Amino acid sequence: MSATAASLAFIQIVVMVLLTPLLIGLIRQVRSLLEGRAGAGVLQPWRDIRKLFGKEPLRAPGMSWVQAVGPVVLATSSLLLCALIPLVGTVAFPLIPDDLFVVVGVLLVGTVALALVGLDTGTAFGGMGSSRHMMIAALVEPTVLVAIYALSVPIGSSALSQIVNSKIESPVTVASPVSLLVLVALSIAVIAETSRMPVDNPATHLELTMVHEAMVLESSGRDLAWLELGSWLRLGALLGLIGSLAIPWGLAVEIAPIPLLVGSIMLTIKLTVLGCILAIVEVFLAKLRLFRVPELLAGSFVLALLAVTASYLTVPA
Amino acid sequence: MIASGFLAQVALMVIAIVIASVTRARYRALVCGVAVALIGVAGVVTGALALGGHQGTATVPVALPMGALTLEATPLGGLFTLVVGAVGAITAIYAIGYVHGPSASRTSWIALAVFLTSMQLVPATADVVSFLLAWELMAIASTVLVLTEHAERSNVRTAAVWYAAMTQVSFSLLLIGFAILSAQVGSTQFGDFSSTQWNPVAASVAFVTLVLGFATKAGIVPMHVWLPRAHPEAPSHVSALMSAAMVKMGVYGALLVTTRFLVDGIVWWSLLVLALGMVSAIYGILQASVASDIKILLAYSTTENIGLMFLAIGSASLLRAYGIPGTAQVAIAACLLLVVAHAAFKTTLFLGAGSILRATGLRDLDRLGGLGSRMPVTSLTFGIGALGAAALPFTVGFVAEWVLLQALIHGAGSNNRILAIVMPVTVGAVALTAGLALMTFVKAYGIAFLARPRSDAATGAKETPVSMRIAMGASAALVIALGLVPGLAARAAATAGGLSDVGSVGLLGIDLPGIGALLDPAWLGILSGILAIAVIGVSIRAMRKRPRRSVDLAWVGGGVRVSPRMQYTATSYAEPLSRIFDDSLRPQRDVIVTHSSEARYLVERIQYRQRVSDVFEGRIYQPVIAVTERLSAAARNLQNGKIHFYLAYSFIALLIILVVVTQ
């Protein structure tokens, strides 16, 4: 284990845990302001988490250990994502390279934990949310993996830090058609995977449209706190990944106080901008019908596929 | 040493047969189980020796015209013998507690011993005749085992007919293919096949027949129809053995053809294998994701996994044909890792399904539920197997899929148009398969083991006897162990695939040569362990202040806990998918609404029925069967039992012969 990589991972986790509730607060606040409401302020998610940790979880008859373990697994997988994805800097563990397939695997562990929590409640809502959530996850996966493939072609490696490093070194590639196609495809995949509009409405409790909310409906107390924090961290980490791929400059390539500070500030700025964009887009989009979602995802898959073929045909042999 | 290994397997088989014939019913399961497990152990040892580079042949001189029967140790065959032996040993231990009624009979135990031994010998054979002999022995013994419970359910007999027919189709195709190869070379020894200039037409015909023959045994679409029939109807330990070991013989055969016999392949050969694999993977997992019978689900998932293996073989040949041999070798290693991974998790899953069947008498997921608290060991092992089948990190399934994806994305370094199109589509297919597998196994585990029981049988379920728990525990432990420290398995796969320098990094992780990708799940596990400890620490602090409280009603609007019938079932869980893939699955739905007699607008009852049948069965097999039956009915007019007709037939036949002879 390299000490530098470990310290970077630690810093990324701390920064992300501090930032993501604020990011969620920001998104909600921007949405409220645009919709003409006052909003609860950017600190509200932090207050919610504090409140939930102070409350007791309830257990209905028939629920199993999954109710308690699932949230912990989701939170752990999200923290692991924050440690692996290059958010503040691009120094990877020598023995745990931030290989994108591994990152996707870790992400899916969280997805499965959430789906099992939903099924374990033994109600109609939990199963419904879980079923829809897994269906979307299944259809997102081709886009994600093919997009990774497109990114890996020019440098011959699927390690994220190497991909970002190569973009820092040759800035021209950032604006290449391949990169743009990949970014669009990945953005759609991230939106679907983190249950945002137009795939899922995070603010609804309407039974016909719920996906994420339906799964966590029966959780309470610290279970719910972990589920919420874990889901937010996922959103934050994936938005951060898009940020690092779109604007790679500012990421620390070595471990020293100044680059790390710059990296953290850049991350904050990128998340703020992306959060605002997400909020604005969500205000102006209607939620898609559930059975229109596959069409959206098929579209993103086609973009990713185009990106790969384009990267083959543009790379000099 | 190797020769005595082969000898030991045959000797142990004879001992097992004798023991099965003479022991009394009371002790039979225990004694025979141990004897069959020993055959498996002998296979594991022999396979490991062959993998370790030990050479050796055993020759049985016989009076057949084709020469002596030869058994020879190769690293590739060794890996397969090892996998089959391990699966055999585990399932035999499981069978001690599982067998009852007809599956505990003498015939059944004898067939099991013969089945296991013949499977272990197939990868060791070194000439056509002994290969086909071992192959046919395997087919016959497994047919007997599928028939075990024929007196109890009529479905068993149909399944056995389908299985026997398909397995004979496979055998005939192999016979044709091998005949062509042998005629070209003038020898039946495998060793002579590898160094020949083939006539392209003959080689193409041989390639297609051999690959189709092996694909039939492996359960590749469209020859997969026997899998979802035979696997559910066979006793569970036999299903495990068939699914985790026997279908791998088809993969072994395909590897034999593509890496030893017809190495310098033509491009369309590789594309054929690739396409077969891709279609099987996607179609198999789609069917699995909508299946609600747990053993049918597992059978279709076998088709999916075998599809992935064929996909790996196909891409390896394609890469080799386009002059990228290094990555091609990695793809072969990926195929072999998939073999190991699938053997481990599918054994766990089928044994788990057997435990559910034994405890509840049910295979229908829609009526299960809540088994997690009633069968904790089965729940844990089945869960681990499901994680492996879903290819999640820290399981051997993930390792195999990771190597496969690395091989695919490093496939093309050249400006090759075909590769630039084929490889991304292949990655997309693998990804879709992985995503659907995730959903399938969340469904299988979540519906069966979580939530509340959906029937009385599930409510009264009890944990299984100790021998079954040991066997399930052992195979689940393999899923996790090989997933955390995959270095050894990867090097075994690399040796068997002829790739010499797969390195290990860190705590026995994998370092793929020439690709620069490394994976060390153990360190990833340590890192996530540290993070999990932090999360759990916070949880424990919160728990000290506010412990979990049990309530009768948590968050119920109406004031009553909703009835278990209102939970999502396996069918409803897969409903969105079956709608999206409506065109490929063609589910048949009947909705019958009964209105109240007093008011048309009041609905009294809604009946919903959904059936997903196999598209290929309906489109390809039913017409063939219909034509055959019509021809047979016509032939019955000739065979009408009247003696003067038969005399007339003989007279006409005699006339024809005379005409032919005198010309």
The separation of the N and C termini of chain A measures 36 Å
Average pLDDT level of chain A: 88
Shape of chain B: globular
Summing up helix and strand content along with how strands pair, one would put the structural category of chain A as: mainly alpha
Content of β-strand of chain A: under 5%
Protein chains sharing the most extensive interface: A-B, 89 and 94 residues
What share of residues of chain A is helical? over 70%
Task: Write a compact overview of the structure shown.
Chain A has 317 residues and is mostly helical. Helices cover 70% and strands 1% of the residues of chain A. The relative contact order of chain A is 0.17.
Topology:
The complex is a heterodimer of chains A (317) and B (663).
Chain A: H1 3-34, H2 44-53, E1 58-59, H3 66-84, H4 100-120, H5 124-155, H6 160-169, H7 177-193, H8 212-216, H9 221-246, H10 257-284, H11 293-314
Helix pairs in contact in A: 1-3, 1-9, 1-10, 2-9, 3-4, 3-9, 4-5, 5-7, 5-11, 7-9, 7-11, 9-10
Chain B: H1 2-22, H2 25-51, E1 57-60, E2 69-72, H3 75-98, H4 106-121, H5 128-146, H6 154-185, H7 190-193, H8 200-218, H9 227-233, H10 236-261, H11 267-290, H12 294-321, H13 325-360, H14 371-374, H15 376-389, H16 396-409, H17 417-449, H18 456-459, H19 466-484, H20 487-496, E3 510-512, E4 517-519, H21 521-545, E5 549-550, H22 570-573, H23 575-580, H24 582-585, E6 588-595, E7 603-611, H25 615-638, H26 643-662
Antiparallel strand pairs in B: 1-2, 3-4, 6-7
Task: Tell me about this structure.
The complex is a heterodimer of chains A (317) and B (663). With 317 residues, chain A is mostly helical. Chain A is built from eleven helices and one strand. In chain A, helix 2 (44-53) runs antiparallel to helix 9 (221-246) and helix 4 (100-120) packs antiparallel against helix 5. Chain A is globular, with a radius of gyration of 19 Å. The model of chain A has no long low-confidence stretch (mean pLDDT 88). Chain B is 70% helix and 5% strand. A two-stranded antiparallel ribbon of chain B has the order 1-2. The mean pLDDT of chain B is 89. Chain B is globular and about 100 Å long. Chain B starts with a helix and ends with a helix. The interface between A and B is large, with 89 and 94 residues. Strand 1 of chain A pairs parallel with strand 5 of chain B.
